[in-house]
Automatic annotation (TrEMBL):
Xref: InterPro entries: Ig-like_dom (IPR007110), Ig-like_dom_sf (IPR036179), Ig-like_fold (IPR013783), TCR_beta_variable (IPR050413)
Keyword tags: Immunity
Protein name: Ig-like domain-containing protein
PANTHER family listed in its UniProt record: T CELL RECEPTOR BETA VARIABLE 30 (PTHR23268:SF31), T-CELL RECEPTOR BETA CHAIN (PTHR23268)
Biological process terms in GO annotation: cell surface receptor signaling pathway; immune system process
CC annotations in GO: plasma membrane
KW Iron (keyword) present: no
Domain Ig-like, chain residue ranges per copy: 17-119
Keyword DNA repair (UniProt): no
């Protein structure tokens, strides 16, 4: 997955991020291990997310990360996520089953880390 752009609308600049998911496609058999990495460009301090899409439930937010080393929750069912670097998040499982059939999407939102704490801002997805 790859998205990138910088647009100006009514004098405001919108920053759109580049999101890369590796591997781009992955089809696994029952019991296979899973590891997918997501990389982001276009901002220095992104918030990172893993969404799961199933036909029955649609999109569901499963993991979110606001900083390196912090993912909430750390695991869900047999899936786990880690944030080893500020521009990377991973999705892993030791073994997937038939009931785990889904499409996973990595997403990012920009978040600036202020030079002074007095100007701190929070962004939400």
């Amino acid at each position: 997955c790859f998205i990138s752009s910088l647009a100006q609308i009514n004098g405001l600049y919108l920053i759109l991020l580049q999101v890369y998911q590796e591997p781009k496609q992955l089809i696994l058999s029952h019991g296979s291990a899973l590891k997918v990495s997501c990389f982001v460009n276009g901002t220095d301090y992104p918030n990172l997310y893993w969404y799961k899409w199933t036909q029955a439930a649609g999109f569901t937010l499963v993991f979110s990360s606001l900083s390196v080393g912090s993912v909430d929750p750390k695991s869900k069912d047999q899936f786990k996520s880690q944030r080893p670097e500020k521009l990377q998040i991973t999705l892993e499982s030791d073994g997937v089953g038939e009931r785990d059939s889904a499409v996973w999407y990595c997403a990012a939102s920009p978040h600036s880390v202020p030079e002074q704490l007095l100007s701190c801002t929070k962004t939400t997805p």
